[in-house]
Structure formats: structure tokens, C-alpha cells
Amino acid sequence: MEVTRQNFKDTLKTVCSAVEEADFLAIDGEFSGISDGPNVSALTNGLDTPEQRYAKLKKHSMDFLLFQFGLCTFKYDQEKSKYIIKPFNFYVFPKPFNRTSPDLKFICQSSSIDFLASQGFDFNKVFCNGIPYLNQDEEVQLREQSEERRNQQANGVGTPSFISPSSKGPAHVPEEHKDFINRVIGKVEALLTNSEKTLDLEPCTGFQRKLIYQTLNWKFSKGLHVETVETEKKERYIQVIKVDDEERKRREQQKREREQEELNDAVGFSRVIHAISKSGKLVVGHNMLLDVMHTIHQFYCPLPEDLQDFKEVTMCVFPRLLDTKLMASTQPFKEMITNTSLAELEKQVKEAPFKSPQVETAEGFHSYDTAQEQLHEAGYDAYITGLCFISMANYLGSFLTPPKAYISAHSKVVEPFFNKLFLMRIIDIPYLNLTGPDLQPKRDHVLFVTFPKEWKTSDLYQLFSAFGNIQVSWLDDTSAFVSLSQTDQVQIGEFRKPYRYMRSFCNSREL
Amino acid sequence: MEVTRQNFKDTLKTVCSAVEEADFLAIDGEFSGISDGPNVSALTNGLDTPEQRYAKLKKHSMDFLLFQFGLCTFKYDQEKSKYIIKPFNFYVFPKPFNRTSPDLKFICQSSSIDFLASQGFDFNKVFCNGIPYLNQDEEVQLREQSEERRNQQANGVGTPSFISPSSKGPAHVPEEHKDFINRVIGKVEALLTNSEKTLDLEPCTGFQRKLIYQTLNWKFSKGLHVETVETEKKERYIQVIKVDDEERKRREQQKREREQEELNDAVGFSRVIHAISKSGKLVVGHNMLLDVMHTIHQFYCPLPEDLQDFKEVTMCVFPRLLDTKLMASTQPFKEMITNTSLAELEKQVKEAPFKSPQVETAEGFHSYDTAQEQLHEAGYDAYITGLCFISMANYLGSFLTPPKAYISAHSKVVEPFFNKLFLMRIIDIPYLNLTGPDLQPKRDHVLFVTFPKEWKTSDLYQLFSAFGNIQVSWLDDTSAFVSLSQTDQVQIGEFRKPYRYMRSFCNSREL
After folding, report:
1. Which parts form a coiled-coil structure per UniProt (chains A, B) (predicted)?
2. pTM attached to this predicted model
């Protein structure tokens, strides 16, 4: 189901109940770019520590926008022995809530945009119809502002912007606005004596509206309800209404409800993430570290500096995660699956010894056909990620005694994969462990090597040919980490110039 | 006429001849954002020097993308006594030329994007169908690379990436690729003895293709033409063709022509700017400083640090500019035109004492109706900018003896407005003078004032009420420039705490 600003409000209930009833959820995000900094080989060096990798992704990837969020809910139907799925494809965009709310800037990377364009991505759905959102701080701030404004208006103090030395007395009206304000006072005085109920003042500037509020608060403390209204052309003007105390309260109540609804609308897509989070359901993703980081960054809070703090925040937002790329790269799948990209994985788990799960799209939802690939649409990618998880989980069930054909998301056999996120292109640390310390492999067989910038990987292979197999992790044009296959091979003094080298202290090294 | 990647090549001739035959051109740009830095009041402080303003715009506005470029050509038809116009609306996007070419990143500002969305802007035309472009450095670099590669291939040295110590001998083929390469050698040997003309190798990785080129260059130095070809699915494979010397030359010539055309395609939209530049025609814009800066930045060269250098580059690219916002803000128009925004100006110059010019849209072009405003489409904005220029220029003609109803773009009466760009919100320097030193107004009646952050403009008015009229230029929450109406009013020692103050040295102050 495609969800944009237009149908979001009507769809939210459907989303929440799909999440509530699901056995597990699959998610995927599409971004306006991947890396704003160094080239990919430096961004994802093969010998990064988890701390370094987190710091690099945080620094170089978070200024992009997650603008399409795919969610596919999977609910197992015992009777039919099949999964009922509900796929959603949300377009999100940080449309500013009002003139004073933050005006977010984000980066687009031409190659990413061009790639999505080649996949038929509809950018108008993002930029024209994207669902707005607020993170938790912004939501709290907005609710407090609204509360404060209400209290002050009730006390007749006016809005916060009026608190300045000069507002203790009557409004200071600059010379050029005096005529204008005097005309307003005349009109309001006439309203109080004539038979009209309502007075619509002419559209005017924000500054003039301030002056009007200040003046009316000062001069007429009772019997009036003053409110800013917008014309169809988005021009703002002030409406003054004669009211008794009861009507005044009723109108204030209405205004409060309207404001409350506007605030909920502004929180927007974040409410979907809140619902996922509150459900505590297993959330499955493929190579999902960036998806998780972006989701927290946009819809919860700025990412913490420290990796340990990030792990804690993540466990609050997503108490149970599973990464299908990690699963596919781990025993017993590692030997069977040669290419763990999502598209290839999805093809492989259709073949023996895997079995394609039986799935049925719930009524009213768009049904995907995996034969007609719609890769890189977030909803579709979430859907096939869920399929991969089911096939691999069920395969694990075949080792049980007695074998089980259906493995649930709560089963012990998938537990070893919980809360471990795949770390791309790190040689010796396969995953980020969200619920404990990370692996700390020995790295004393790793050399830091510098060389002329014309050198290629093959030159390094030649140089180290005496040492058998090596792994090269490029740092930049003139340096790399070279991992020898055995520790005892590293003997200082063995190499001669011009090949400078040093023992590496990867774990403490700042890249 | 809408111009995208799809019809650009077919349209370029039409564009060039429209520019060549025109009496003057009008331009306008739409951007992905305006300011990446401080708020607008700090970005455009009323007492900026031209150097400061240029530095701020360069720093805070150039990371946005100019993604729609409007051009409207105006040619006066003496017989019909009317202008024939040709409006173009170009969508541009920095689609990377190939895998090694720069992958541009640009910033989007939510409020700007949301504003354009509300005006019906079609983002897919930018991101999916935008015309690519290269600046001059990128173009030169690409042409040099292509030249170099050709020379090396002709000399049998292979592509530049092969120059490494190991390429002096036979290719170093890593163990895991040896089988693959041996199979290729076998196939090529078979080709040389059998009756086939062409051998299509299977698609393979870039690294494997390198190995193949290296190996074939080394083993078979004559009689073969080797080329990388792309399948419909964008998979790359190597084609080996048996050739004699003559055919080899012919194929190389074809390849060169193909490369040349690809290069021209990559230069893309910049060719339109080159044509405008080369024509030397008067280019009219409304409040055009940012348009000019973006145009030079994207399609010519990174903006120079120094304002004087910027002026020189600008005069090379656009030898004759005219800003209608400056014109409308200057005598004799200043007194007649209260609001110089483009939309309002366009309405005002339709009324007496102005006359709407007679215009006719050239055949085959979309004709705009100014009654149905299409503001913020760059082509439309360029069109009405041109109309405003004509009306104002013709009004100046009414003062000549004898009065002239038609004033050409070359007339003496518009010359005073040439090469002066409007400076937004600077109190005492109306324009940037591209062909000489800028105005240096006295600023010794200006105070730098600091105050508690609760203060509003009205508090400053009160504080300085004894000094008559003042002008306030906010710097941030707690400081501003205050301009008194007369110099001799500034007397140090007159103010007491808590209002700290100091004489300002605006011209030397770094903001």
C-alpha cells in the first residue's frame, strides 16, 4: 500500500493494527545518498573497529534523507499454513510545520538519485506528497510551546514573543503603525456597541498582528475572543469575536483540540515508528545498520557520539532486530549462499534445499510478484527480506528432532541471530553486537604499509608473495592494511626500503 | 519549450539560433535551497559590505543545486512593431558521466522544496530527466583523459590504469583468475585460426577486463581490435575482432567519433551557457546576483575567493547584464514602483504611465498568459522579467526629444543600468558594480549595539527615541547595527549601562 501525506491519516489505524497482529515485521529504507565523505573503500575499511565504523557512518551518512520507508508485516495463519502479509511503502519528507519550525537541510548524492531514477522512483511522491515527521525532541518542544502559549493567552499575557521590557506597559506602537492601530481600536469599539458578532480585520503583517494582540489585550481585557485566521490564499488576518465567558471557554477548547490535531499531524510518520517500537515485535532487515541509524536519527533523536550509547538507544527503539545478510553469511548458510545481496539471496532461497514459504497478500493490499522484480522499492525490498528470513528459519527447523517445517519468529533456533547487525566489508568482525561487547579479534598479523601512489593491489600481492595468502584493505592512494595469514610471519626488519611499514595498532588508530 | 535530457540534443540548435538572432535575453534560475547557514537576517545584513555579502552567499548558498534554468529570447520585429519571443525551460541535473567521474552532492532545503512543490514543480523532470553538464575544468579533464587513453591504446600501452610496476612484464594474474584468463587466451587463439570474425567474451568484472586487456596486449600485439561493449542490461563484456590494418584504423576512427559525441553529451547544458556567453547579448534578470553566481559555479568554474576576481569572471561569462530589480528601485522608477518583487513589478508595468509591450510567441513555442500566473517556473519568470525590462526601457524613451516609443537593448538610455547587480537589503549600497569599484558610503553614524536577548526592535526604537529616525540591522539575538539619521548624533559616553555600545567599523569587520 502506498502511503503519502494525502492518505496517511486514514491509513495509520490500518498500519498500527497490522503491526499489532503481526508475528514479525520486515523493514527497508531508501536514502538520498550513501556517503558524503571519503570513497567507499575508506568509509568501509576492512579493518575498521566497530567504534570506527559507527563514527564514520554517523559522520558521513546521516545528512542524507531516508525518504522511502518500507514495512511489511507477516502474520502466520495456522489453518492455512501460510503467512498473510501487509506491505506498506511510505514516502516521507520533513515539510516544515510552520514558519518557526526547523527548516531541515539534507544532502542528495547524484549517483544515488540517478540510480533510484533508473529504477523508476517517483520523486514527486517524496517532495510533493511526503509524510512529515518530528523527532522526539521536536515533538516535546512543539507541545511545550503550544502549552505555554495557551497558558499565557488564558492569563492575558499574550504570546511569548511579547515578553520584552516594553510590553509591561501598553504596546509600543512605532510611528508608522499608529494610524493603523488606531483604526483597529475604532473598529473594535464599534463592534462592542453594534449588533455584529464578529469582526474580520484586513490581512496584515506578523508585526502588525503582534501590535493588535498587545493593544487589544491591554485595552479590552474581557468579552473578546481574538484569533488569527488564514484565508484560502494563505493570507493571515485577525478575527475578533464578541463572547460571554462560556462561549469563550468553548472556543478555547475547540482551538486546543485543533492545535492538538495539528501537532499529531506534524509528528506524522514518526507515529509509525513509535507503533513498531511499542509492539516489541521482531524487526527483520537486510544489511540494516544504515536503516536503523537513519530511522533513529530522523524519527527519534540525533545519534549519540558513543557506540555504547547508540546500542542502548537502538535497543529502546527496536528491542529485537535480525539482519538477514548476517544470517546468510553465517553457518550453516555461509557455505550454501555464495552471494548475499538481497536480490541474489531471494533467488537462492527459492531453490533446494530451501523452500519458498507460502504467502498470501491481505485483502486490499497490492500484491507483489517476485518474478517481476521491483527491487529498490522499499516496500518490495522489505517483503522479500521477510521471505528470505522465513526460508532460512524454516531450513534451520529441518535440523530439529523431529524436524519442523514451520519455525516461528520466537523460536530458539533463530535466537542466535537476534540483535546482531551485519558489518559490511570488515574482515574479522562479522557483526555489531547490540546487547553486549563486540568481538575483538587479534590483529597482530596486520601490517600498515605505505607505497607509491601508482601501486595497485597486484603490486602488493607480488611484494608479499613469499607470505602466502594476504588480504589488502586500502586506506588511500598510498597506504593500506595488509593482513598476513599467520601471526608469526610478521618480523620487523625483514623488509627493506622503499617499502616502509609499521606494526599496526588498528584498534586504537583514528582514521 | 520544456527541455530535458530526452530532447536536449534535438533542441540545442534551436536554442543557439534563438540566442544568435535575439536582441536581448532574459534568464532565471530555480534552486534546491537558498541559505545553508545563518538565518536570512544574518545572511543579508543591512550593513554588509559587497565583499562580505559575496563571501556569505558563496559560503552559504553554492551547495544548493540550480536545477531549473529559464531562458527567454526577445527579438524585435520592426515591421510588426512587436517582440518575437522564444521561451525555454531547462531541467538540469549532474548525472555522473561514468563510474570514475565526480559524484556531485548537493543540499536541499525543505522549505524551498516545499515551496516549489506547492507551485506544482515537477521534481521527476529534474531527477529523472535533467540535462547533465560539466564545468570547464571537468570538460578539459575528460577530454584530456580521452586523448591520453587513445594515445596509449595506439601505442599498445593500454589504459592509464595499467601503468604500474607489474605491467612492464606480462600481466600479473592472481591465482584465482588464472583459469579464467587461460580460457580467454584459448578462445582468442581459436578465433585467429577459425573462420569467425568476432568473439564476444562473457560479461565479467572490471578487474577481469583489465587482466584481459593486459594479457591480449602482451600476447597478441597485431591483428586484433579489442573493445568493451555494454549489453542492454548494462553488463560489460569484451569483444575481440579480427582486423587488418585498414579496418583497425577505421574502427578506431569510429570509436573516436563516438567518444567525442559522448563527451559533447556530457558537457550538456553548459553548451547553452557557452552559447549565451559567446553571443555577448544583453542578459536581463530580476534580482539576479544568485542566478549569476550559481550559473558560473555550476557551468564554468568554482567561484573565486575574491570579489574582484568574481567580477572579472562574470564579465567574461556575461559581458552585459541588467538587473530589473535594480532598475525598478532606481530613479525615475523608484517613486512609481512601491513593490519591486517580480510578480508585483509585472503587474505595475502593465498600468499607466507604463505600456505593456506587444509580444508574440514564436511558432512552435508554448505561449504564456500573464493573466494565468505561472510564477516560479523559470521559463515564465524569465519571460516576465523581459517584459518588465521592455516596459521600463520604453518609459525612459518618453523623456527623449523627440520621445521614442521603442527603446532597443543597445540604447544609451538603458546603459546606466548595465553590469550593476541589485544587492538585497543593503541600506546604503544599492548594487554590486561589476565594472568598477563599489560605492563606499560613510558609515560613521552607525552604532554596534548589544542588549539582552529578550529585546525586540521596538525596544531599540524606544532606547534611541531621542535621536529621531533610526534604522536597525539585526546581527543576532543580542546585537544589531543601529543607524542614526545624522552623523553628529553619535557621541560616546552618552549611553549608560546596561546598554553597551561601540563605534562600528563595518567595512573592516568580519561577520
Report:
1. none
2. 0.83
